[in-house]
Amino acid sequence: MSAPSAPNIFIRPRVYSGQIRFYWQPPSSDGGSPVTKYTLECASIPYTQDLSANVTNYYVTGLPDQTELTFTITATNINGTGPAATFRTVQCGTIPFGPTTVTLSTLNESTSLVTWDLSTISTEGLPKWFVVTTIPSTVEMSSFKKCAYIYERARTFQVPSTNIAYKYLIQAVNDTGYCVPFAYSDDVQF
Asked: Which domains does the chain have, with CATH numbers?
């Protein structure tokens, strides 16, 4: 007889403004005795919540937006508390508003430079990265996507084919999701 193993985390936390929903499954080993409780904790806030053994998801509310939070969960039986499982570090907030200005210029006959600005609204979760989508003007060619780091505000791109107009869509992404696709550049002909 022993304490249970760590609970199994199978879905990343769902993030909203001021709240996170956590999901887990029972430990693979209960140590020979049934789990009597789970304990959800975050040392940096601090936060501790004991939950009954039949609970496998839980909302935590009243959390600060734009703050990196790491929660852990443990399982306990009559023999003790097992090791903690650590949830992915996430940040509360709303979906980012996203880039405010997207500008496209040509550097040469096959290279473009796309630049953008970023909104800063206090309730947003801070963006983690950008998705840049190249959109050709013809259906014969496919759109393609690249990621950009959060500190980037410009990227150069080789266009796959000339004699076609292209435009770019920039989307900010945070733990809540992708911003609404509205930040498009003007079309530029190559």
From this structure: 14-91 (2.60.40.10), 99-189 (2.60.40.10)
